[in-house]
Specification:
Layout: E1 15-17, E2 46-50, E3 56-62, E4 68-83, E5 86-101, H1 106-117, E6 129-140, E7 143-152, E8 155-168, E9 171-181, E10 209-219
């Protein structure tokens, strides 16, 4: 099933690294200027732990023919900090070995999952975790935007995306969608961004953009 692309996730978001990801979230090497369309929503100050079992991440990958594959990815762990009633930093790590294909079954499902975990795509054996390091969530006029760094296969790039955040007691929830360009993270298989490696792909080209929808639950 090598003619298929899938995605990673979460929310919030993704580092590929060879060891278990760190909880540190406040300092990052790259900065992103986040366009804000924000709300006046404020949250209770404190430290919140991501509830991995209650959080979900779904991905969608497509080919140029519009053929689509879908799947899920498990949250490994994460945390966030609220300072002065605003989310000041957050960290969400995804377990890349949990990558699951939901639109196939049997041998086809197993084949695609194996290919996505191989070096052609996310290189899970060497990079068992992907990570999103948020630096801010800013809101204005009812719409919030999250900004930070997405790390896949040990490569980090700035990212921003709209997110809905709400609080109920000691629980914060984050819902939204994000899209990333897999070619920026050295995921090259049948990508039009690498014509020297894959000339004349035609209708076998796999789109670089991968979409993720997420529901992240954090508790103080």
């Amino acid at each position: 099933m090598k003619n298929i692309l899938a995605t990673l996730t979460t929310v919030l978001l993704l580092i590929s690294c060879g060891t278990a990801p760190s909880e540190a979230t406040s300092n990052t090497e790259e900065k992103e200027t986040t366009a804000t369309k924000g709300s006046n929503t404020s949250f209770s100050d404190g430290f919140y732990q991501i509830n991995a079992e209650s959080s979900t991440c779904n991905w969608v990958g497509t080919e140029i023919t519009t053929k689509t594959h879908t799947g899920t990815l498990n949250v490994y762990k994460g945390s966030l900090q609220v300072v002065d009633n605003r989310v000041s930093s957050a960290f969400v790590a995804m377990d890349m070995a949990s990558l699951d294909v939901t639109d196939l079954s049997g041998d086809a499902k197993a084949s695609l999952e194996g290919h996505l975990k191989s070096e052609d795509f996310f290189g899970v054996e060497k990079n068992p975790f992907s990570e999103l390091k948020l630096e801010s969530i800013k809101t204005k006029e009812g719409q919030s935007y999250a900004g930070g760094l997405l790390v896949i296969r040990g490569i980090s790039h700035p990212i921003s995306f709209p997110v809905d955040v709400s609080q109920d007691g000691n629980q914060l929830t984050f819902d939204g969608d994000m899209t990333f360009d897999r070619s920026k993270y050295n995921v090259k298989f049948r990508s039009g961004s690498f014509p020297d490696l894959f000339p004349d792909l035609g209708d076998k080209l796999i789109n670089d953009e991968i979409s993720i929808s997420f529901h992240i639950v954090a508790e103080s």
